[in-house]
Amino acid sequence: VSQDKINVMISGAPASGKGTQCHLITNKVTYFLSLRQIPYSITYSQLNCYVTYSLTISSICIQYGLVHVAAGDLLRAEIATGSENGKRAKQYMEKGQLVPDEIVVMMVKDRLLQPDSKENGWLLDGYPRSLSQATKLKGFGFEPDIFLLLEVSEDVLVERVVGRRLDPVTGKIYHLKYSPPETEEIAARLTQRFDDTEEKVKLRLNTHHQNVESVLSLYNDITVKINGNVSKEEVFAQIDSALTSLVEQKAASGSMA
Ligand code: AP5
Question: What domains can you pick out in the chain, each with its CATH number?
Answer without folding.
Answer: 8-28+65-252 (3.40.50.300)
